[in-house]
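INFO worker-7 received task bundle
INFO bundle size: 2
INFO processing item 0
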Amino acid sequence: MTRVSVLISTTKDGSMYNRHDPADDSVIENRKQFLATHSIDIDDTTRVKVDYSGSDFTRYHLAQGSDKAKGMYDNELPAADALVTTESGHALMLPVADCVGAVFFDESHHVIMVSHLGRHSLEQMGGQKSIEYLVKHFKTDPGTLKVWLTPAPGKDVYPIWALDNKGMKEATFEQLLEAGVQQENIIDSPIDTDKDPNYFSYSEFLKGNRPIDGDHAIIAIMTD
């Protein structure tokens, strides 16, 4: 029986990404220690590299064995808004500081996806398109998908103007349900990152409300 482990780091684990220096030694050490605590090797992990320089924020990449360790020590990996793998023992990691990190698990087809659902992606229906990708490439049944969501900023401090001022989670839930995910299969963290100092918030850092910049991370791995 295939199982999935979903892990979310906190500020006490240290930052999992430095937006100014992707090869930051302290960040790499934080990753190693956090993963090792959960019996995952950093060299068996691939990081989602989000790139805001383009115009498409619904790009998906199938991570294979040759992708292991990519993005864990540097920034040398293809930009993508989500990574997918069918390999047991291959961990996928997404650093986030305000956006929603989502894990999708299709047990029947032995597939996991770790998707970045930030403002840019949600404005392009990234929640729905993530699932459409799984349906198209793996024949996933959305009704059986299990979904995990990270903490995110509250609607009052981070409305998405292009989506009628919906909050991150509000837009995410709307898109997932529209795509056929069952509400009872969504495991949500109700924590607001702008209010809980156990999680990083880039927007609160920019406002001067947080002393340090950084990212927590969501990691998913399948085991047999």
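INFO item 0 finished
INFO processing item 1
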Amino acid sequence: MAHLKEYALKNEMTINSEWENKDSEFGLFFKPKSWSNNHIQISVIFEYKNYKGLYVGVSYLPELNFNDKNRIRETFRNNGFKENDWWIWKYTENCNWADDPKIWNSIATPESSIEYKEITALINEILKINPE
């Protein structure tokens, strides 16, 4: 995930890595400098232990007001994202990395990694939708 952190910093995003060492899910949160709403952030999360269920999306904190939350959810739903009360997401094509050495070797070199390119493409899609 170090390469994603570099990508975030290069694209003027702050990084919240509090989930980087969780027992269940694993992931990172990014906050674009251009987003003024402090209650939403981009999330790159493995939904399950053992690096399974990778998705990229938007998470929002409980402090987000009801109308903004519904507007954001509808905007992303209209762009093909799944959503629930806490998350908006799209799964990556290969969302289960687990013990797949090909994926781990691939992600180690982001300039040629299909997985890295897919993750950053989803982040860029979120930035273009711009939930602000």
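INFO item 1 finished
INFO post-check item 1: The longest strand covers residues 40-48.
INFO post-check item 1: The chain has a mean pLDDT of 87.
INFO worker-7 idle
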